[in-house]
Amino acid sequence: MPAGGFSSVTPAGVEFEAKITPIVIISCIMAATGGLMFGYDVGVSGGVTSMPDFLKKFFPVVYRKTRNPGIDGNYCKYDNQGLQLFTSSLYLAGLTATFFASYTTRRLGRRLTMLIAGFFFIAGVVLNAAAQDLAMLIFGRILLGCGVGFANQAVPLFLSEIAPTRIRGGLNILFQLNVTIGILFASLVNYGTAKITGGWGWRLSLGLAGIPALLLTVGALLVVDSPNSLIERGRLDEGKAVLRKIRGTDKIEPEFLELVEASRIAKEVKHPFRNLLKRRNRPQLVIAVALQIFQQCTGINAIMFYAPVLFDTLGFGNDAALYSAVITGAVNVLSTVVSIYSVDKVGRRVLLLEAGVQMFISQVIIAIILAFKVKDHSDDLHKGFAILVVVMICTFVSAFAWSWGPLGWLIPSETFPLETRSAGQSVTVCVNLLFTFVIAQAFLSMLCHFKYGIFLFFSGWVVIMSIFTLFLIPETKNIPIEEMTERVWKQHWFWKRFMDDDEVADVTNGDIAKKNGHANGFDPTSQL
Fold first, then answer.
1. Tens digits of per-residue pLDDT, 335-366?
2. Where is the Major facilitator superfamily (MFS) profile domain (predicted)?
């Protein structure tokens, strides 16, 4: 892999050299396999919950309703709190694990936190594949959730810290790309295992999660920790050596000194979570939290969790439902590739706003078709309309996959300063998992009560988030992290009012470096 060199000038006028080295690309690819595991867990649950053998063993009540839709109607046959708990327990466990992951990310480093995530994933996979009862099944999902909490905390941080600014967006989206590949892989596996006779196909589906789990674990053993993390923990010589290796040049002294100084300033912040609540950090916190809430309120996870169940509800039949889920999974992957190419070219705001229009139109069309064609006790969805529903869901998924999916993780990871980055990432992951849990636990019940209106509900949220983007989310394309205060927040029509007390707060914290252009801490990638 050829390495390309480039440099940029910092506010202080110091020019830093760097190359896009093979070790950076390889490290980012290995780290992003955490997304592969997360995606597989998202995709596999919807597939196995539509398999008759799985339902018969663990959810006999749902099994009887699916065999006789006349009991509860099309929209309500999967409405079961236990079935939803199987899916959502992973995210509740991930939410809890995030609090511990914040500590390990800071004290043990990004690399070891990813390794811990790998071990949790492996243990959860073993329990799920060998499950004999519902308790064992859900305990396995809880262990997988712990893995998700640790991986989602460490991987986006690692990617944003090790990647050069020029390609930071694209490399960071590798995490989201792997999430989509994991979902597609799970859909393909479910499509194959559903045809296995003998009642053990679901075990194979759950057990094959061991492949991405092993990839993440091996990857965590092979990658180097980020220079930020090493210097933050006082391992200066090692941090310098890693910085030299990932930058592909010996001229790293100015950048290294900047990083050491930023780390010193960050250490003066004794309570990062308390500091996160300070007025000058309000814009990053509000946007990070809003992005996670909005990401879930698009309805994407409801569709990706339960795609086979949803298509079966619409009268596709089990086999066609799994096949349709594969199609949406493939669209998800291809659209995320579009995001990797375009995010550092057209910018974050353009992708978010365009996707808002696309998602709104597709959801409204789906709702109209279902309102007239899918009733409680009729399967009147003709082939033409069925194809149109799949096309519209693919249109919706593609819009999400090149916008709110990857950017929901990218924007928070590149806007929080070093002194609050670990705490900020922790809050980001917590809010995401909390709302993922809520949607996963409630979706099948909402589908039962709202019927076609579920798509109108989510489209209403799309309007709200698009308005929020238009007025409150600034463009961060190609802006070094330590320049965010001067070039983004102080220039924004609304957020600049929260920067008024920045000088006072920084002096109180002993942050003299503000005058040298380091108001927001430092990320080594930001100097490239």
1. 988 888 888 889 999 999 999 999 999 999 98
2. 27-477
